[in-house]
């Protein structure tokens, strides 16, 4: 009993200590300045990511799959599952004239799962939802009264949104389960527009600053059904649905002038006093469907399709304030994503370590990830996302624990505007331990 209490204390301590890490930012991505930032939810788990994001029909007793909450039903009735991961991103941003390389690494998720009854399993955890991290500098020269005036415009943003979820799955029959996630989205995002006049003694520097505070609940639902075609093959069906919702967020904005002395800034005049107001965050309807085919627990192939009424949560600032202006170079668009993947499953009863490993591969294509203005043509162009994935799992402690590794290469954008090539490496530990089995004594 003391060992179980110590494990619970360890998990709670780890959960609380690592919570602030999800808010850290490192990669400079101009795509994150729109909406609530770049979404981090599609391929967060290395096991799922290694199959191109294939997830709607995936159920494992030692891997927690939040993309379809019905999958929690696969957790053993006397087991406790702990799932924790790390992720590293390496990106190259390119346009016609220049390129930029950047990298970052952070926790990808911390999740727990366990049974409440034989027919009722639960899971809760935390993972990043979106990230804002960008800085762009533009230099201009203005002619006035025969003199040249050098001005510098800086657009920067930091912060992000984290998702805390509590999910439940209910086993309706041996081959049929349903579930739902209650998600709490929280975080802070700061965006600023700074105008500097370093060569002028008569022009004051100014800054437009806005801080957005997000604290909202959302819900999503899932279903999984499996049908035995014969003694060798099983067909899997997965359905998911995320509710469209109109949410409120709190904004706090200020416009002020300042002077610089060395590395220090000193405020001079407040043009717009600090104002707190409500803006709107509209969550899109997201519908997902997946099909998979499994042969005797030896291999799996499957495909997922996801439709979203728009590509990300739609943020609209209160029109009476609108400190940073409207995003005229960006528009929300419908999104359609496909994932295709497969797995050579592990033989857990084999005496050979190589045969107890599993190997996976996949790809994904997402149409409508973003829609941005091409200033050369004056038309909006949809930025599509394509990626190739691969991964494997290494068993530990006689299959009670598994280390999952994935590598993904992807690209999206338009070269004339901005193109992003990226490599993602993910590593996770998924462990299942027997906690709820009653011991018999002679």
What is the topology?
Elements (H helix, E strand, L loop, with lengths): L1 H17 L19 E2 L6 H4 L29 E16 L4 E19 L2 E12 L2 E11 L2 E27 L2 E21 L8 E24 L4 E10 L2 E17 L2 E20 L2 E10 L3 E10 L5 E3 L13 E2 L3 E10 L13 E17 L4 E18 L4 E14 L3 E17 L8
Antiparallel strand pairs: 1-4, 2-3, 2-20, 3-4, 4-6, 5-6, 6-7, 7-8, 8-9, 8-10, 9-12, 10-11, 11-14, 12-13, 13-16, 15-17, 16-17, 17-18, 18-19, 19-20
Kindly describe this structure:
There is one protein chain. The protein has one domain: Beta Barrel (Porin), CATH 2.40.160. The two termini are 19 Å apart. 5% of the residues lie in helices and 63% in strands. It is elongated and about 85 Å long. It is mostly beta strands. Strand 5 and strand 6 (147-173) form a beta hairpin. The chain has a 14-stranded antiparallel barrel.
What key phrases describe this protein's structure?
442 residues, 14-stranded antiparallel β-barrel, 2 helices, 20 strands, 5% helix
């Amino acid at each position: 009993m003391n060992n179980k209490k110590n494990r619970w204390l360890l998990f709670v301590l780890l959960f609380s200590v690592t919570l602030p890490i999800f808010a850290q930012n490192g990669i400079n991505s101009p795509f994150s300045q729109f909406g609530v930032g770049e979404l981090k939810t599609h391929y967060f788990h290395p096991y799922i990511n290694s199959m191109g994001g294939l997830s709607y029909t995936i159920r494992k007793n030692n891997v927690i799959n939040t993309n379809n909450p019905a999958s929690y039903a696969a957790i053993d009735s006397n087991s406790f599952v702990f799932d924790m991961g790390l992720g590293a991103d390496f990106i190259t941003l390119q346009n016609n004239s220049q390129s930029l390389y950047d990298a970052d690494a952070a926790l990808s998720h911390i999740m727990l799962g366990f049974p409440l009854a034989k027919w009722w399993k639960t899971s809760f955890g935390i993972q990043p939802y979106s990230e804002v991290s960008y800085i762009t500098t533009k230099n201009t020269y203005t002619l006035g009264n025969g003199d040249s005036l050098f001005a510098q415009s800086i657009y920067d943003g930091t912060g992000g949104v984290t998702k805390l979820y509590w999910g439940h799955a209910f086993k309706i029959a041996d081959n049929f389960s349903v579930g739902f996630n209650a998600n709490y989205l929280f975080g802070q995002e700061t965006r600023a527009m700074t105008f500097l006049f370093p060569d002028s003694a008569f022009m004051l520097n100014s800054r437009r600053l806005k801080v957005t505070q997000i604290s909202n609940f959302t819900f999503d639902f899932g279903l999984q059904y499996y049908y035995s075609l014969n003694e060798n093959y099983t067909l899997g069906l997965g359905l998911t649905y995320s509710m469209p919702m109109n949410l409120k967020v709190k904004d706090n904005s200020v416009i002020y002038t300042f002077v610089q002395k060395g590395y220090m800034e000193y405020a001079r005049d407040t043009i717009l006093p600090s104002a707190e107001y409500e803006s709107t965050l509209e969550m899109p309807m997201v519908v997902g469907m997946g099909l998979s085919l499994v042969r005797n627990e030896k291999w799996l192939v499957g495909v997922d399709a996801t439709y979203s009424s728009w590509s990300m949560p739609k943020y609209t600032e209160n029109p009476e304030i609108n400190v940073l202006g409207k995003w005229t170079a960006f528009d929300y668009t419908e999104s359609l994503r496909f994932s295709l993947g497969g797995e050579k499953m592990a033989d857990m009863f084999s005496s050979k370590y190589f045969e107890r490993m599993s190997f996976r591969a996949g790809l994904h294509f997402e149409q409508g990830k973003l829609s941005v203005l091409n200033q050369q043509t004056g038309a909006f162009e949809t930025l599509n996302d394509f990626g190739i994935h691969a991964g494997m799992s290494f068993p530990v402690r006689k299959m009670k624990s598994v280390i999952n590794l994935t590598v993904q290469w992807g690209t999206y954008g338009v070269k004339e505007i901005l193109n992003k090539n990226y490599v993602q490496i993910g590593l996770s530990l998924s462990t299942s331990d027997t906690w709820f089995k009653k011991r018999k004594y002679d």
